[in-house]
Amino acid sequence: MPIITTKDGVEIFYKDWGSGQPIVFSHGWPLSSDDWDAQMMFFVTRGYRVVAHDRRGHGRSAQVADGHDMDHYADDLAAVSAHLDLKNAIHVGHSTGGGEVVHYIARHGESRVAKAAILSAVPPLMVKTEANPGGLPKSVFDGFQTALAAGRSAFYRDVAAGPFYGYNRPGAKPSEAVIQNWWRQGMMGGAKAHYDGIVAFSQTDFTEDLKKINVPVLVMHGDDDQIVPYADSAPLSAKLLKNGTLKTYKGFPHGMPTTHAETINADLLAFFKG
């Protein structure tokens, strides 16, 4: 398997397909690079080089006990980019991966980066604070950790079969294959990484990161996102970015890159070529 070893000794699995301008995909919690199948297949057949890694503690990467925070996530992404010597790359992040992309660009600079897109992404800040009154109470995320520790197999099944893809909405038609694939990806990773990752995605404040970014960024979000509520995420991120464009999808769920891949892929392609 293609693996790189980070400076702190963690083995990170990655995929690298095709040639052309690189698109680098950062996945959501608690999944793996497999969650980007619909995008990677679409873009590799259209002349792009597609790259995706499994975050530390997720998928096929090492199940280490420590380093499950945005600084390490960003540094691991930088290590993959440097190892593959990616230039003029487009970075695409979903959910937690959107935070990873934003933090990576702010922390490591734009010398390798052409554009970015963040989808259903966690920035600027998910948790409710005095400065972020529209955020979710910390008790919500504490509940995630409690449920994970009590039995993550059942918890992951419930997330995938319910709010993640909007399958709990009236008239929804759940796909058993999609639910099982989400559960499979989640159970491949390490419980400790996923437990700590809840703090990383919910309590990291990306406000200053967003202000530092100069490259064009497409902010894509469904207004029926039950995981990362729309009002306190995408519009705020787009305002903080120097060169941000907001694209809102009526009725789309958090997992829209899977449920609405045709629409999302077409809009990403238009942005990449624009």
UniProtKB/TrEMBL annotation:
Q: Cross-referenced InterPro entries, in alphabetical order?
A: AB_hydrolase, AB_hydrolase_1, AB_hydrolase_fold
Alphabetically sorted, this entry's keywords are: Hydrolase
Q: Does the keyword Hydrolase apply?
A: yes
Molecular function GO labels: hydrolase activity
Question: Where would I find the AB hydrolase-1 domain in this sequence?
Answer: 22-254
**What family, per the record?**
Belongs to the AB hydrolase superfamily. Bacterial non-heme haloperoxidase / perhydrolase family.
User: Which PANTHER family does the entry mention?
Assistant: HYDROLASE, ALPHA/BETA FOLD FAMILY PROTEIN, NON-HEME CHLOROPEROXIDASE
Q: What is the name of this protein?
A: Alpha/beta hydrolase
